[in-house]
Each structure stands twice: as C-alpha cells, then as structure tokens.
Amino acid sequence: MKLRYKPLEVEPSKSTSRKITIWRPIIPVILIYKKGMVGYEALIDSGADFNVFHSEIAQILDIDYKRGKKRQIFGLGNQEINGYECDVEIKLQGFPKFESSVVFSNQIPPHSFGVLGNKGFFGHFEIKFDYALRSIEIN
User: Fold this and answer.
1) In principle, which of 13, 36, 66, 137 could form an S-S bond with 128, CB 3.0–4.6 Å?
2) Domain 27-138 class in CATH
3) Which tens digits make up the pLDDT trace of 29-39?
4) Domains of the chain: which residue ranges?
5) Nearest to 50, CA basis, from 91, 81, 4, 6
6) DSSP-derived secondary structure letter, 64
7) In whole angstroms, what separates CA 12 from the centre of its chain?
8) CA 49: distance to chain centroid?
9) Which pTM value belongs to this model?
10) How far is residue 121's CA from residue 127's CA, in Å, rounded to a whole number?
C-alpha cells in the first residue's frame, strides 16, 4: 500500500508569523480494544522505541491503562515521559488487524499525533520512505 506524506504548516519560531510547510509520514490507523475502536492519525517514527498515544485514546476505548506496565520513555532532549504499556489491536487500511503494545500517556499534548515505533509496528511490515516523492510504501 502506498500512502502520501502529510503536509503541516508550522511557525519556524515564536518571533515570526511566517509559516513553512513540513512533510511527515503520518497515516490513519484504527486502535481496537474489545468491542471499541477509535480512528486516529499516527506518525511512523523509526526512531521511536514504542507505539505511543495519548491516554485519552485509552479512556475512549475503556482501557484501564494505569493497570498496564509502567514505562518511562525518553524523547528529544532526553525529556522523560511516563506512560503505561497495554495490549490493543491496530488496523491499517488494506491489512488485517494485528496485536500490538501501546504506551498510553497523559504527558503528551492532547491534540498531538500518535506515534508508531519499533516495538509493535515495524516488526509487522516492510516500510519504505521516499521523502523526495513524499510517499510511504507499506508491505
């Protein structure tokens, strides 16, 4: 399956109102738990160790996420994010759903994208990034 990178307008700094367009490998996914499901956009991030979503997604799916395994994730600038690892199913258009672990955290900005990382996503697919053509191929 081929998908397109998503264009996002961002301000390069707080001191300017100028905006630039950046392109990111963001794809739609469906998270499934028991009989509940929620669609969400997620960034495919080969530098991320885990799949990470905001805890509001767990609440929508009626997951008692704080019963999951506690995880500390370190991001840019070694900033620590605390979350809880839980098992869900993930569905991408054109593929069968698969079981995966997701770290849910309330320390992520509420309207940010989910993250698809190495543990729980990359092991299920062959992924080719082509930034020049702004396309992602998932097999």
Assistant:
1) 137
2) mainly beta
3) 999 999 999 99
4) 27-138
5) 81
6) -
7) 23
8) 11
9) 0.91
10) 10
